[in-house]
Amino acid sequence: MIRNVAAGVQSFTSNAFLVDGERTVLVDTGANFDVVERIEERVEDLDAVVLTHTHPDHVGNVVDVKAAYDAEAWGFDVDQPGVDHRIEDGEDVPIGDHDYRALHTPGHKDDHLCFYSSEAGVLFAGDLVFQNGSFGRTDLEEGDRDALVESIDRVLGAIDEDLRGMHTGHGPSVTTNPYHDVELASKAARMR
Length: 192
Fold this sequence. Notes:
This protein is α/β, with parallel strands linked by helices. It has one domain (2-190): Metallo-beta-lactamase, Chain A (4-Layer Sandwich). Helices cover 23% and strands 22% of the residues. It is built from 5 helices and 11 strands. The strands form 2 sheets. Strands 1-2-3-4-5-6 form a 6-stranded mixed sheet, with helices on one face. Helix 4 (145-158) links the parallel strand 10 and strand 11. The longest helix is centred in the last third of the chain and has 14 residues, at 145-158. The radius of gyration is 15 Å and the shape is globular. It starts with a strand and ends with a helix.
């Protein structure tokens, strides 16, 4: 089961997806709210934190989560604060009951990762793409529009057209034809 524990938070945060199963994982920790309390309401323990990238709104609660659950955080760049272990591009990462392929997808931030499981039919898109063809900002430090377009195209080539769910860093998850939303983002990101 995948649940956004940041749902309804009225402060600046990212979504934070709790995926329970064989390996209970929090995908991004969010920021500026008591994520530990929200996790405790749903599960008894947490095995790991997996980070799409290290912008403050996605990792602001990482210290609290790691302390509360003695869990370690996994991400692309171990030189970033809070990241304990590196996830390599193309590595399979166990999340819940499925393995997710890590895809290094820079453009929004250099250490950005997306996670895709063809078996689960699920994509964790971070801030790469959003509902209705929106895409991540490239006007922040490390932002690069050309790299973002390449990353979106890489994800589009990796996912199946029968993708059932896309969980994004902000806004609602997409459960109706999310493949189409990624296609739209690929087109929209090319427009200047």
